[in-house]
């Protein structure tokens, strides 16, 4: 498999996008809206020309500012799937796929399980079907790299889970270097081998999804991966633990060493919920009223004081949890990671 290599500078309206990235397998860029994610795809596809740098796939150089090379989009072996799929509404499914060229249209229709839709207009399709047509069209070009712009954002929550599983299988099957951008970390973690957090044109962290959760670079990365962030002042405590006095007044403990201003990172699935604290190994106990209860799939997110816990539906029913009732959130010191505040990095 060839490697997509990018290293370029692209001035945007309010900041400079500066990115050095190697894409092998599937890489996801996540970040808030306006972080420069889509601009990365546009630079790779040749839809925008960076100020300086180099973009290449294997031995093919697509852009090299020093050598004066800039290949047009149709001269790059790129399959690009736009956020809203950009299908032609006046064409049938077959015509959309055939538009990309090549003589393997029937093969791609079959491979994506859309042969039965060949004569249908794209306006008659479901969200998942439209995505399969867009992917088939992109791959019919026989690209060397696949670019996906928010591939699941146009889908409703129910369809999204199913289509994400299908997309995961397809990316593995085709084995192309794939760069996708999304604002949803859950999508990125499910689809990508490595994830980069992009903020105002710069990578905050680039790692596997597992590494990013276990060792977030800072509070921003931790929050983006779904963690609770608790602000406080850290100092040495008893038994080798670090004591953190939170800005909300409570005191918690961590096994990480730190002094001064910190952000304590606690993931929702590491928090237990009860009506009263039960003596166990959990060092940290936060008390308060239940502020919200939201079911997401087969899990339930329960907001207590400054934290959100994630528990099973059965636990909610068994404990008879209800908004406005007092509850206790408890979590271990070993599950409480300490990171520098995102804005205080040197």
What does this structure look like?
By secondary structure, the chain is of the alpha+beta class. It contains nine helices and 21 strands. The protein has helices at 37-45, 93-98, 105-111, 127-140, 157-174, 185-191, 209-214, 219-224, 313-319, and strands at 4-11, 16-23, 26-30, 52-57, 60-64, 69-70, 78-81, 145-149, 178-182, 194-199, 202-207, 228-236, 242-246, 251-254, 260-266, 272-274, 284-296, 299-304, 307-312, 326-331, 337-339. A six-stranded mixed beta sheet has the order 7-8-9-3-10-11, sandwiched between helices. The protein has a five-stranded antiparallel beta sheet with strand order 2-1-4-5-6, covered by helices on one side. The longest helix is centred in the middle third of the chain and has 18 residues, at 157-174. The protein is globular. The model has no long low-confidence stretch (mean pLDDT 91).
Oligomer: single chain
Largest sheet: 6 strands, mixed
Q: Report the total helices.
A: 9
β-sheet strand percentage: 35-45%
User: Structural class, from helix and strand content?
Assistant: alpha+beta
What is the averaged pLDDT score?
91
Q: Strand tally, please? A: 21
Compute the gyration radius: what is it?
A: 24 Å
For the largest beta sheet, what order do the strands appear in spatially?
7-8-9-3-10-11
Give the CA-CA distance, first to last residue.
38 Å
* H/E element sequence: EEEHEEEEHHHEHEHEEHHEEEEEEEEHEE
Low-confidence stretches: none
Q: What fraction, in percent, of the residue positions are helical?
A: 10-25%
- Tell me the overall shape: globular
Short description:
The protein is an alpha+beta fold. It has helices at 37-45, 93-98, 105-111, 127-140, 157-174, 185-191, 209-214, 219-224, 313-319, and strands at residues 4-11, 16-23, 26-30, 52-57, 60-64, 69-70, 78-81, 145-149, 178-182, 194-199, 202-207, 228-236, 242-246, 251-254, 260-266, 272-274, 284-296, 299-304, 307-312, 326-331, 337-339. Helix 5 links the parallel strand 8 (145-149) and strand 9.
